[in-house]
Please model this.
Amino acid sequence: MKVFRTVAALAVSASTLFALAETPTPPTPSTWKADLLTWRAHHEQGLASPNGWLTLVGLDWLKPGDNAIGSAADNRLQLEGVAPAHLGVIALDGTTIRLKPPAGGFPAGLKVNDAPATETTLSDDASGHPTAVSIGSISFYVIHRGDRYAVRVKDAQAPTLVNFHGLHWYEANPKYIVNARWVPYHPHQTLHVPSIVGTINEMEAPGEADFTLDGQTVKLVPVIEGPGDKELFFIVRDATSGKTSYGAARFLYTGFPDHGLDQPGTLTIDFNRLQNPPCAYTPYATCPLPPPQNRLAVALPVGEEKYSH
Model:
């Protein structure tokens, strides 16, 4: 399940523009720089989209039982911005989550998946199709992290989006395109990947990528975010982290090795496509932290620099 990469999970699948824009194409001498600049532009467009990470304005963990939501002070989940005083009640019963009307019924204009609101069961983001609840510029959906559930709130008029003025990048450098040796794991391993909010996620690790950079031997272990994915997900911390790049980690997506996941082969990794995780832009994301194998002593001064809020 793709729980870290999706930008817009409200009424669409994880394969939105932002997700599509992050799948690198194999570099060639004639097109590498142009392709990289196009990828950067798509990355920024995804962030600045009406459903992008810059629209996040809330993350509230659900407790068992009824969780009233709205802008009034007597709600357990309080919404900021222009929202009804009492929007509804989110009832958590084990793994079942239902949206129920508040006293007096659902407010006018409230929609569930773009239809007038009725009492209904809510799907979380682990399903790939989370139920979107919206009114005006405010929307929310349920996310599943470890054994916990939370409500992620977005506002299409969020100050973080309205005041967005672009990203900062290191200079592109082809030195940081490496052809790594792919060493498959038989069987695939399961990594217990911690997140910035304290949850643990079990993620499939199909092998490791080994290469030499600046005279140092480097081993990186990618994971696969969801069944059927056709790309590898690297969570990396390097010697620039916390200095000129985001402190916790950066993300990188690549295609599969040339002979597939289960055979030895070669994997091309372009570190110029390192990107900040959503937590670099908003405190309401739940980003994974790098496993110990991916905390590098070598510097990677390419890709996205530290974000200036």
Notes: Helices lie at 17-21, 32-47, 159-162. Residues 6-25 have pLDDT under 50 and may be disordered.
